[in-house]
Design goal:
2 strands, 47% helix, flat
């Protein structure tokens, strides 16, 4: 994140060499945890295959919507560090209002009658 308020998100194409080991460890743990919840990821993982970013993102969305997996983002309000990835995660992984369906309200004072 660059800029006075972290408004410029810089995305690198490659992982820096000094962070490569930590990246691989974290990605492996992510795939293992997701394999516990998602059959498609579990199959790829057990076969020893490589999980592509697109397949990983789709599985995170599926399991988030199924409420069996919770993606966690880190950031700071100070200089807006990590705010944009958080917002991208909301768009990528959470349901839109259209996908949500009808919401039923109950009138508590009328015997929980649907309103």
């Amino acid at each position: 994140f660059e800029g006075d308020r972290g408004e410029q998100v810089v995305v690198a194409d490659e992982v820096p060499p000094d962070a490569a080991e930590a990246f691989e460890t974290a990605r492996t743990e992510l795939v293992e945890r997701l394999a516990d919840a998602d059959d498609e990821i579990a199959e790829i993982y057990l076969e020893g295959g490589d999980v592509s970013d697109a397949v990983l993102k789709a599985a995170i969305r599926r399991q988030t919507l199924a409420r069996t997996f919770v993606p966690v983002f880190m950031g700071s309000a100070y200089k807006n560090k990590g705010v944009q990835p958080l917002l991208d995660g909301v768009v990528d992984y959470l349901p839109s209002p259209v996908e949500r369906g009808d919401v039923v309200a109950l009138a508590v004072d009328e015997g929980e009658r649907e309103v």
